[in-house]
Amino acid sequence: MKKAIALLLALALSLTAFSALAEDALARIQAQGYMVFGTEGNWAPWTVFENGEWSGFDIEVARAVCEKLGVEARFVGGEWSGLLMGLANGMYDSMANGVDVTEERQQTYDFSDPYCFNRTALIVREDNDSLTSFEGLAGKTTANSPNSTYMLLAEQYGATVLGVEDLAGTMSLVADNRVDATLNAEASFYDYMAAMPDAPLKIAAVHEEVTSVAFPLQKGEDRASLREAINQAIAELRAEGVLAAISEKYFGGDLTTPAE
Q1: Does 182 share its domain with 164?
Q2: CA torsion sign, 198 to 206 to 120 to 238?
Q3: Residue 191, helix vs strand vs coil
Q4: Is residue 260 part of a domain?
Q5: 197 vs 200: CA distance, rounded Å
């Protein structure tokens, strides 16, 4: 009898554990009252952490989405090189960090609908007239965040990439003539120059491809409803003009509307 009871208890515990593993992500988030995002905090104007406060384009978009979901947005800081791995390991529910949707990333993660559309700029010293195109990166050295889309693109064009974790560091290396260039978001360049108007930098070229920025999620049926809810929130925020207003605030223009 005792053995039978023990087996029943073990089975019940196993079923409970399985149920917890398969718990719907949206239901869990709404029950706990908050959604957790991984983010850098040092990539203005996308994500900034100063004086104990989070701000930036991605931060405000994440908060607006969470308001639609009826929960609070919470943020966990980390270096870019480890953020996607942290998501894969379940350290947070998503990322709010200007994450480009790529074919490689789609093999590991699911993505929400895009909430921003971005172009990549080739940034050089203002007196550098020899590097005028992405094709000219062959044999050159760039500074970029390790494992970022920009690093991969620079390598595709034949550049050697020096890994640097923050935007200010990459810009300084270019300005000091210690590397030939950096690839980064066009919007981030303008924001940096607004803060550092005397920096001897310029955009040499803008890539023809437009990248889509979205919220990455772990793959799994238990996250399907969460993805759908986020997509609905993004659609409503776009229709209401909220996304455009946040973009205007941080970028001086609307980067949230898909190109026709």
Answers
A1: yes
A2: positive
A3: helix
A4: no
A5: 8
Residues 235 and 163 in one domain: no
Q: Which residue range is the domain that position 98 belongs to? A: 23-115+214-251
CATH number of the structural domain spanning residue 238: 3.40.190.10
Residues 88 and 146 in one domain: no
Q: Are 162 and 179 in contact (CB under 8 A)?
A: yes
Helix, strand or coil for residue 114? coil
Q: What is the dihedral of CA 224, 71, 56, 78, to 10 degrees?
A: -70
- Six-digit token pair at 91? 């350290």
Residue 84, both tokens: 């996607």
pTM over 0.70: yes
Residue 37 is encoded by which pair of tokens? 């995002």
SS3 content of the chain, % helix, strand, coil (to 5): 45, 25, 30
- For residue 45, say if its preceding peptide bond is cis, omega within 30 degrees of 0: yes
Decide if 191 is inside a domain: yes
Per-residue pLDDT of the chain in tens (260 residues, 90 and over written 9): 444 433 333 333 333 333 344 579 999 999 999 999 999 999 888 999 999 999 999 999 999 999 999 999 999 999 988 999 999 999 999 999 999 999 999 999 999 999 999 889 999 999 999 999 999 999 999 999 888 889 999 999 999 999 998 889 999 999 999 999 999 988 888 888 888 999 999 999 989 888 899 999 999 999 999 999 999 999 999 999 999 999 999 988 888 988 65
